[in-house]
Amino acid sequence: MACQKIALIGNQNSGKTTLFNALTGANQYVGNWPGVTVDKVVGTLKSTDTKVVDLPGLYSLSPYSPEEIVSREYLLSGDYDLIVNVVDAAHLERSLSLTAELLSFNKNIIVALNMMDVAKNNHIEINVNVLEQKLGIKVIPMSASTGDGVQDLVNALNNVPQRQKATIYPQEIKEAVVKIGSYLKDKNDFEKEFISLCLLQNDKVYVHEYMTDELLQVELVKIRAVLEKQYGQDMESKLAGLRYAFVDEAVKASVVKAAANRSKNF
Ligand code: GDP
Ligand code: K
Ligand code: MG
User: Fold this and answer.
1) Which atom of ligand 1 lies at the shortest distance from residue 20's CA?
2) Pocket of ligand 1, candidates 23, 30, 94: which has the most ligand atoms within 8 Å of its Cβ, to mutate?
3) Is the pLDDT reported for residue 264 higher than 70?
4) ipTM score assigned to the predicted complex
């Protein structure tokens, strides 16, 4: 599948704007501190018609700051056909926690595994094939600031493989998500799983939106009660724990040498 519009999504300082500039030839301001990019910026991938959208950084999809809300709203607009999730290879675990949330959108997604130069200097080796298998999506190692791997990413955009469904949530939660999703008739298919998970964990935004849907409210109370009894935990903690376990496993399996040997000749 070739892409028409690509959304760059990732943590603050993962290198999204640097990558955006490399892809589009733009000259957007880059800075090694959060809050440099505060609104979405649209450019065009060099010598193509493909649009690239740079967005403010976010750490989770339950955002608080206005910039994070810009990115969440954009994700929910659905106005893109590929998410390029810019991941900081030097802070893999932290970065992948957002990836685990992004996987609940039924959209194509690939990982731009950025900052490979920093990871290498920190003696972090990542087995990209294993990481791809664990996440179920394509992973392209690169360094946006040196340009290494940027062309690999461009090539990958022309032929994005169908993603494999990641196994983050057990069967009973998948069933709950489908059940809740059947009430969301006004929502698009790509966002139903995400919104159902939000409702399951009492996300204020959606609980408020569906406050007047009494049938759904009754169903939610029932579903939550059954699951929370089974788990002995509230759903917000349970879902966060499942995502954490998923990321932990992906990192443990793919980071082959994390020990930074202290230099002997200092
Ligand atoms: P954003 O917040 O995700 O948009 O990140 P920026 O593009 O503003 O980059 C944050 C900082 O990381 C800047 O100082 C960039 O020069 C630097 N940076 C971006 N990509 C790389 C990379 O691959 N390697 C290294 N060493 N630095 C990078
Ligand atoms: K930045
Ligand atoms: Mg930026």
Assistant:
1) 7
2) 30
3) no
4) 0.99
